[in-house]
What we know:
Layout lengths: L4 E10 L2 E9 L6 E2 L4 H5 L19 E4 L4 E4 L2 E2 H4 L4 H10 L5 H12 L7 H6 L8 H15 L9 H26 L13 H10 L10 H13 L7 H10 L5 H12 L7 H12 L5 H9 L20 H16 L6 H13 L3 H5 L7 H11 L6 H22 L28
Helix pairs in contact: 3-18, 6-7, 6-11, 7-8, 7-18, 8-9, 9-14, 9-18, 10-11, 10-18, 11-18, 12-15, 12-17, 14-17
The structure holds acetyl coenzyme *A.
The site of acetyl coenzyme *A (ACO) has 16 residues, from loops.
Amino acid sequence: MDASNTSKTATLTVGNKSYDFPVKNGTEGPDVVDISTLYNKAGIFTYDPGFMATASCESKITYIDGDAGILRYRGYPIEQVAQGDFLETCYLLLEGELPNKAQKADFVNRVTNHTMVHEQMARFFQGFRRDAHPMAVMVASVGALSAFYHDSTDINDPHQRMVASMRMIAKVPTLAAMAYKYTIGQPFIYPQNSLDYASNFMRMCFAVPCEEYKVNPVLSRALDKIFILHADHEQNASTNTVRSSGSSGANPFACIAAGIACLWGPAHGGANEAALKMLTEIGDVKNIPAFIKRAKDKEDLFRVMGFGHRVYKNYDPRAKIMQQLCHEVLKETGHENDPVLQVALEFERILLSDDYFISRKLYPNVDFYSGITLKALGFPTSMFTVLFAVARTVGWIAQWKEMIDDPNYKIARPRQLYTGDVERQYIPLDKRK
Ligand code: ACO
């Protein structure tokens, strides 16, 4: 894939020698200097830990303008995509276009027919301790799908790639619900294919065999939207992990398991839990000033959780939708006067008018309101990152597919700045001091 244009040239001068490199323009966003020939030309590498100024790939899936607070899937603003449903979003991310009615029905049918997992998976779960974190269970069980579905692991076969994709979008919610049920000691609930994606997931999490379970459509619609908001976010840490793993030609189920492992970290998927914990700790609006003082104190490690973002230097567009969903869910569940919500609203209002936060362009991110919302939906904090993984699975798959479909893709193999010992001689053990 190389759909970029080349208009300018960048010149790098090292000592008394200069080297020219093409500057590529995408359809939007900053230009990139193509330095892929740098080592061959000049015998040096670039150094950019954490990819602060490095585009690791070319992609057509998701566009973010952090300064303007813009997020688009395949060109469609997130606010508009959120008007549809999650499976439509999945189709859009995977195929690049919104489906027509027939395409949508076919896609929903294909995903729905893959929701059950091999019965042997239930026995696989028995090996975990009951107090296992559901993310630990997710890493293992999604990776284990590679041992159950051999017939969709030839990454060179487009049909098998498609089947593996459908299987993951369909089965990850089933495994997530099983992970939850296992840790609370309740029986697994089989998927119910007459239900939509989010309703089915809620039923698998919250139903018990001895009682009727009726899905609340307001709550399942809210969960569906939360899935849409988290479906993709261009080259974040877990997506980069999936691409890196996949670049070696690894089994697709194992690649998604690697993405889940990366997402688990508190700097990535775990911030919503931290935000809820912070708001609960504040407890009352009268305590807010003390926490703001702490946030500004350089000696104090405390930061306002759910505020600030590496890319968004404006209001995270997902946070606006999440705030709206939070109100809807709390109203529906009778928690409108929840003190945590009151604290969140007042805290946000004060921070947005505070010079410290204004000057540093710190705005609420998607996690500021998501913890309160997920709690009101009935999920324990240990499931928050799992829900993120359920939603992000399609983004990971779309990015993995895009990479494999690219005839020019290469194994991800960064280089390094070596600062270890220079050559020295091996000393036999009996001669060492
Ligand atoms: N509370 C208080 N001060 C903050 C916060 C915050 N949440 N975030 C940044 N700052 C301050 C820093 O202290 C720094 O101040 P200084 O210039 O006086 O030293 C300045 O703002 C810039 O901060 P950096 O850490 O350099 O910004 P960076 O882009 O590296 O960090 C990050 C982004 C990690 C998200 C940060 O804003 C943060 O820790 N936020 C809280 C955690 C959080 O909500 N994470 C979720 C991210 S969204 C997601 O993963 C889905």
